[in-house]
Batch of 3 targets.
Target 1
Amino acid sequence: MAYKVLNSVLVKDAANLASLSTDMLVLVINKNTKNDSSFKELNKKSKNYISKTVQSHLDEPGSIVLLPKVDGINAKNILLVKGLDTDTPTHKWLSLFQSIAHKGNQSKCKDISIMPGTITPKDKDELWLIEMVSKTIESNVYIFSETKNKTSKKPSVKKLTILTSGLTGSKLTKAKQAAKVGYAIGEGVNTAKYLGDLPANHCTPRIIEKKVKAMTKDFPKLKVKSFNEQQMEKMGMGSFLSVSRGSEEPARMMVIEYKGGKSSDKPIALVGKGVTFDTGGVSIKPSPAMDEMKWDMCGAATVFGVMSTLARLNADVNVVGVMGCAENMCSSKATKPGDVVTSMSGQTIEILNTDAEGRLILADCLTYVGKYKPSYVIDMATLTGAVVIALGRHASGVMANDQYLADKIIESGEESGDRAWQLPLWDEHQSCTKTKYADLANIGGGREAGTIHAAAFLSKFTNDYKWAHIDIAATASYSTPVKAGTGRPVPLISQLLLSKKLK
């Protein structure tokens, strides 16, 4: 089950813009535009109406004006956009094209044709711009309407054309490939968003299991394994299963294998937390905003989205993705504060807070994934509210036992616009896991460094490989201006894997 919105993304030359049939022709106006022959021809057809409008209405970078049908030009609408400078931060470039996608749906356009120009952020090139446009439009024409009947709205935009100037031969081939990559990443973002946006009663561990198995219909190269509670119990996953004890819904662990690289290459492993609803268990959460706990499975949704992107592109990498899915509910069978459980690693854990449940799932998934002898392991989880306080909504938190891996994650975040920031994981932080009654405690350290202490706990299960933890509690979904999933960090992880930065 992949979630693709656009039917096609094309790259073509911008010649004969006046005769181009499209619902919305988007012209990004910058200092190079006035010298572009295609723009000159179009402006001439409009009897200089376009250039006059640019001069009178487009002041601030990012400002837009929508023109209705212009005589002599086939496009039903023309959207003029004031372009950005090379020193403008990447997030503003993303926001610019997000607004174009939204405008397309608002105007009920079936297709959008965009001439993005040739100016790019510093250290980026035109191929980056084409990929970014493709990715951003695909992931922002998305509208969630799965659980609506009478008020359902579907995305109107179904086709994107990216208009370039002077690209021929190998350059044009590379441009088309860049658009294809962006399209696939955007599809992966939508797949993750869709899974996260589903209400918890429409997205239980068993429902996710069905959706994961259905992926093989779209992508035969993916191999899916699923483990039920009885199988996990046989494997000794007492830490994982302690989370689902209070729920009528049984837990599931799904493993997705993708082998696109050399058979001799060790796989990179992705592990995602998939708590489909988190009440906090016996350590119950306060009721305000508890509905947002349906997004506590966005780590698993990220794995789902990234694996679909890799399969769509036939990427030449080997990746194994693990999705640990459970409901954390409160009942007479639920795990209690003070209970001690045994993890798959053999380490015992005193559960001092049942709302620190994600790390209990990840502990056993991280142990399990060691069987693949991975070159690197990255886990993603909406793990701590503390990361929201530390970094705000703009960056995911990264902690690692390997600095090279951490560096490449940060670099990929900057390249993709899906930013991350490293927090320390020092030996001094390890004391937070000490307890009198078990090998480890699942919380410690009081209110200090909650994000780092969670990673310190996870690090106890990652001694056999190079590992990084990405806390996405701040970035995977938003509360304002509307409650919605973001699909992050699918762009970051996709960029990391496709760029072959991990050697």
Target 2
Amino acid sequence: MNTAVAVRPVIPGFWQRALGHRSFVIGGVLTLLLLAAAALSLVWTPYSPYEMDLPGRLQPPNARHWLGTDPFGRDISSLLLVGARSSILVGVIAVGIGLLVGTALGLLAAARRGWVEELIMRVSDFSFAFPAILSAIMMTAVFGAGIVNAIIAIGIYNIPTFARITRASANAIWSREFVLAARACGKTNLSITIEHILPNILSVLIVQTTIRFAIAILAEAALSYLGLGTQPPQPSWGRMLSEAQTLMYQAPLLAVFPGLAIALAVLGLNLLGDGLRDLLDPRLARKR
């Protein structure tokens, strides 16, 4: 008797579609490289990023220093690895602040409606008048430059974005039939929000988080370039660009390497966000 056994695919449906999505794959690879560089810097770098070697300053790429050395004789590859760690640290904390606070405010606005929703949305509109760089400049004038103030400024800038997206997505779910049925069963707004609203908008928040992460890396690099973000001796991609601008003709590669690192990190996160948007949107998923 011939018994044929049907073997299910090893890769679940989502990952099967994800591996066939070009933007998701490219963005995922670039993002993993960013995370791998930051993780590697925790345990190993070719040279100490804080060790200066003035006789060996401004060396071109060679066997000892793969990407050359900077004006202080520090190894550029080591600086790039540790700089990735700084960018991820700022991005995770700043986006985390925006995600937690903004999502909570957006859910509250959608659940309560009325004057509560109006107040939260008007405060969010007012916050858009103070972008991350302007907020960091104001905080620097009061508290001094530093990575903590940069994180707070970028985090505050992310709050209204998450609040508006959460509120718009949650309002669409509140009008669905299953939410009306939950209300008819006597569930409170809090339980409906936790059990029904939040799970249904989670995909939107995941996509927005990846996009805001890329923006946070750009903002941190811009603030460090202006001297308002990560402070010496901690390496930063933005400050590496700032230090290289006076040596563009003498050593142009000093600006190329950190600029390329920022571009690839932001490109990877944006492509990952676009891929996740296509994969997590049921309407787009059905078309594929």
Target 3
Amino acid sequence: MKKIKNFLLMTSGCVLLALGVYFFKIPNGFATGGVTGIATVLAKIIPVSPAVLIWSFNIILMIIGFLFLGKGNGIKTVYCSMFYSAITYILELFLPLSSALTDQPFLELVYAMLLTSVGSAMIFNADASSGGTDIVALILKKYTAIDVGKALLIVDFFVAASSFAVFGIKTGLYSLLGLFSKAFIVDAVIENLNTCKYFVVITDKREEISEYIIKTLHHGVTVNAATGEFTGDNKTMIHTVCKRSEAIKLRNKIREADPHAFIIITTSSEIIGRGFRSV
């Protein structure tokens, strides 16, 4: 089930990434970093289409990645890199664009960043990447003291800065704005995808609630004795975590089992452990 979910995440992410790149980034010259940015800039200088350049660069970088990083580079990254490149190429063949969709560059930058950021976040959340300059950053990390985030930012910054010389000041400024905004959007989307709920339940109905959590939701339960300082009543405190989609079901079940239960629900951006994300 998890493999199917990851496959759907990666595939959907690649589609969104390709749509954002082809319909909004390339026509406007938004070189916000990565292989896409390099291809967008070079396509303006040499007579080769951006889609062909994206595919070529991804293949070259994939080979370099296997040489320098080994097979750990990952079959998921190979799939995402090639599938994303293929979609971009197909769009270029069947839906050729001679200019931007609108005369509103800021509007198109918003859509470019939203589509590509959400797509990238979905791919990252499936423990994969779209290849490209991610591979360059990983190589720099392996052979230098620079961490991946800084290495990737340095590479992408120079790509975005090159758009000033090729497309002019306005497009260059848009490219830099897109580069920095993407990081925040990707983080926000990943955090939202991984949102979980932490329950603390003080109740008299330990067995019924615990059984539902274990047998129906298939999550673990931790319990400990609790004594109300004001009333002096002895109760049980149940601790558990669940996915956001399961939270309403659990809350309703607790209310059904014990209408007087005291429930504390907090939001967590990530849970690491069995049944959730692996380390």
